[in-house]
Every structure is written in C-alpha cells, then in structure tokens.
Amino acid sequence: MNTDTIPETVTRILAEQALLDPEDVARDATLEGIGLDSLGLVECIFAIEETFDITVPFNANDPEAGGLDLTTVDSVIEAVRGLVKAQAG
Amino acid sequence: MGRVVITGAGTINPLGLSVPETYAALARGDCAIKPLDIPLVERLSVKIGAQVAGFRPSDHFDAKALTLLDRFSQFALVAAREAMGAAGLSADPELARRMGAVLGNSGGGMTTQDEAFRAVYEGGKNRVHPFTVPRLMSNAPTAYLTMEFGLRGPSFTVSSACASSNHAMAQAAAMIRGGLADVMLTGGTEAMLTFGGIKAWEGLRVLSQTGCRAFCASRDGMVQGEGAAVFVFEDYDHARARGAPILAEVAGASMTSDAGDIVVPTQAGAASAMARALLDAGLGPGDVDYINAHGTGTAANDRTETAAIREVFGPRADDLLVSSTKTLHGHLIGGTGAVELLACLMALNEGVVPPTAHYRDPDPACDLDIVANTARRAKVRAVLSNAFAFGGMNAVLALTKV
C-alpha cells in the first residue's frame, strides 16, 4: 500500500469507530478525547490490521508492552507507518 | 430453609485426572500452563494454554458412546462418576425423582462446532456428522449425567461465561434449599481449546502469551484452560440420614449484576456479590480465612477484585489469604468455578491453601496476601469462591466446615 495514504486511512478508521466525521478528527487529538474506549481501540486495531495486512502487537492488559504509542491520532499513524515498513513483503 | 452440604467431588482438569491428583498438584503449586498441542497452533498468536493431559477417552467410553460425546461431555461424565462414587450414592427410583443436575458451561461443544464448520466452509463438504447437534448443544453434558445415573428431577445447563459454574452451583443449592430436589449433581465443564475457541479469545487482546501472573505487577492477561469438576450437593438431613461423607456446607451463595459494561468489571458488582454471599451464609468479615479469587491475571480484574475485597472486608482484608489458582490450571471459562471449588475444599479440609503462582513484583493496586508461589498451611474455617464474568454477571459461594 502507498504509504502516503496511511494518515488518511488511519484517520478514517478511527473516525468510523468514534462515530465522527474524519474532518472532525484532529491529528493531535487523543483517542480518549475522540471518545474511543478500550473496546473501541481493540476494534480499531482489528480494522487497521485487516486494512494494511499487518499484525499490531497490542495487549489490552498492557497497552505499552508492544512498544507502540497509541495515545493520539498522530502517534497511531506513526505506529502504523513503522509496522507497514517493518512488515513489508 | 434446608441446609446444603457437599458429599462428593470429581474432576478432570489440567492439574489432574481425579480429585486426589488435583489436590496434590494444587499443594505442590504445579503449573499446567504449557505450549499448546492442538491442530493449527502455528496460526495462533497465543500459543500457550492449560490442556488436560493423559486423558484417553477410550479408557472411559465405548466407541458407540464416543460418537455422541463432545470433549466437554466426556469431561463432565468422568468427573461425575468420581463424584457419585465418592458420595456413595446411587439413584434408586424414589431418590431419582428428587435428584437432578445443573452444570455450567460457556462455549458448548467447541470441538464439534470447529470440526463441522471446517468441513462445510473450508473443506467444501455439503454434509456434517449426523450427531453434530446433540454433540454441540450446551445442555448435552448435563443430559448425559441424568442418563448415566437415572436422575429424573430438574436438569439444565447454566451459561454465564466465566461465572457459569458458580451460577450453576448457586442455583443447585437454591433448588435443594427451596425443596425442589434432595440431591443435585452440579459444577461445570468446558473444552474450548480448539483453533476457533482460542482465535476468538485472541481477538479480544486479553490473553497472555507468557503465563498467568494474577495480582503480579507484571501480569499481562489470562490463559485459557479446559476441564470439569462435578459435585454432589445434598440436603443436610438427607446426607446425615444415610451417613454420607460431608466435605463442606454450602453455607451461602449470591448472584449479582454489574449493569455496567460487557467486558469491564465494576468494583460495586464484585463487592455486592461477596457481601451478599456472606450475608446469606450468616458470616461476618472476620469469619472467612480464604478467598479463591476470580484472579484472571488481566489488568482490570485483579485491580477491581482487590478493591472490592477491601471494600467488603475492611481492616480484616489484611488477615485473609487470597489466591488465584488460575495461575496453575488456567481459566476454564464456564468450568472454572467448579475446579476452583476444589481448591476451597482442600483449604477447608486439609488446611492447605493453594498458591498464586509466578508472582514476582508487588502491585500496589493488588496489595493482599495472595499466597505467593508456595502453598500455605492455615486453619481455614470458611471460604469464599469468587466468579465475576463478562456481561457483569457475578456469583460467589461461601463454604464452611460442618
């Protein structure tokens, strides 16, 4: 997948889960701030994995364990960028 | 209202193929959580679990019977035979009408479901085994108990996820107290360690890939197990009249609902369940010496359960021994409360409290005496067994010595 589309696609996935318009999701917003709870986050990760064909090492018991920062929209985009690059091919 | 006692116990679980084997393993603090040995394990991201090992179905059932028995029914029958034998009971025609069975289960016959779905979807087959439905239905193990022992009284299966067994046993006790039956076979069974069963849990992102470290700061989730335990619950006067061995009294039971979230537990729901079990049993906070915790090893449960115990027991919470035997036998989901009741019986009758294994780092949010790593000798007068399920469904049993 063209890496340029990652920000837009990730934002769309997060917005969909948060029941918001993608335009209303600021890049510096926290996931908590846009109303995503722990279940919502798990669903977002599933959608991200399916969309980008990657595996996101995420354990709800210890969200930081996978070494990923999933606190803001921007940090999720960065995490997905890293995983797509690392798991390419 | 009648008193209810336990006059027999039987089990097959990852720690042992009988009650004595299970007690020995609990006392040693054996951990049955190991690399999973199931088909397609290479496609799982979670590759550990607590499987029943060394169980050969053909040692217990003939080939004709096995065509009708999913693994979860096999477990229930093997456990029930041990329990009935220990209770020295047979259902004569008169008792049969006053004797029933209520088991807990969550997933149904998962092996059967997995195989049938695989055949039609992946294998492209257009037919499945003719006994697919009677094998997979959740009430099958309970039905087989009635057939095996000729029980003619009330029978059904209770499903409340991880609290299924405790709800079943609370219900069975209530039926005896209420006069619906004199004797009930009760407990729970689960055999969910199939590719599909684990995949579903994997999706929720709450399973550990490293082990179950309940109450430890390093905990990172739950580990699934499988197996069954079945008990003979009996009216006290009935048991006394026939000179039955009495393992404990089911002094109290409670059922409450969080009315909160489908997966996130609340302190209030857990606390109200424990408080009501104490009230039902006529026990005060100072009377309980051991709590077999729900203790799943998830971030949310262990923190919430600790807070709930402190809320109910106040300053006496520091005198309690609290352990999670899920660290040894895994989380048997619908069967877990039944196997955990064995830990309670052992504590009451043998004065040995099984440990919480793999404990490394204290968590200030879980600051109870969790019987870290090795079993403890203690005088145990009364115990609570906690179960707090997804769905916010809670059931707690209170047992005392007779």
Fold and architecture overview:
The complex is a heterodimer of chains A (89) and B (402). With 89 residues, chain A is mainly alpha-helical. Chain A has a single domain (3-86), classed as ACP-like (Non-ribosomal Peptide Synthetase Peptidyl Carrier Protein, Chain A), CATH 1.10.1200.10. Helices cover 47% and strands 0% of the residues of chain A. Chain A has helices spanning 6-18, 38-52, 73-86. In chain A, helix 1 (6-18) packs across helix 3 (73-86). Chain A starts with 5 loop residues before the first helix and ends with a helix. The model of chain A has no long low-confidence stretch (mean pLDDT 91). Chain B has a ten-stranded mixed sheet with strand order 5-4-6-7-1-8-14-13-9-10, sandwiched between helices. In chain B, strands 2-3 form a two-stranded antiparallel sheet. Chain B has two domains: 4-241, Peroxisomal Thiolase, Chain A, domain 1; 253-400, Peroxisomal Thiolase, Chain A, domain 1 (3-Layer(aba) Sandwich), CATH 3.40.47.10. The radius of gyration of chain B is 20 Å and the shape is globular. The two termini of chain B are 17 Å apart. In chain B, helix 3 runs parallel beside helix 7 and helix 11 (267-281) crosses helix 12. Chain B has 402 residues and is α/β, with parallel strands linked by helices. The longest helix of chain B has 17 residues, at 71-87.
Write the layout of secondary structure elements.
The complex is a heterodimer of chains A (89) and B (402).
Chain A: H1 6-18, H2 38-52, H3 73-86
Helix pairs in contact in A: 1-2, 1-3
Chain B: E1 4-12, H1 19-28, E2 33-35, E3 48-50, H2 63-66, H3 71-87, H4 93-96, E4 99-104, H5 110-122, H6 132-136, H7 140-149, E5 155-158, H8 164-177, E6 183-190, H9 195-204, E7 227-235, H10 236-241, E8 248-257, H11 267-281, E9 290-292, H12 299-313, E10 321-323, H13 326-329, H14 336-350, E11 352-353, E12 376-377, E13 382-389, E14 393-400
Parallel strand pairs in B: 4-5, 4-6, 9-10, 9-13
Antiparallel strand pairs in B: 1-7, 1-8, 2-3, 6-7, 8-14, 11-12, 13-14
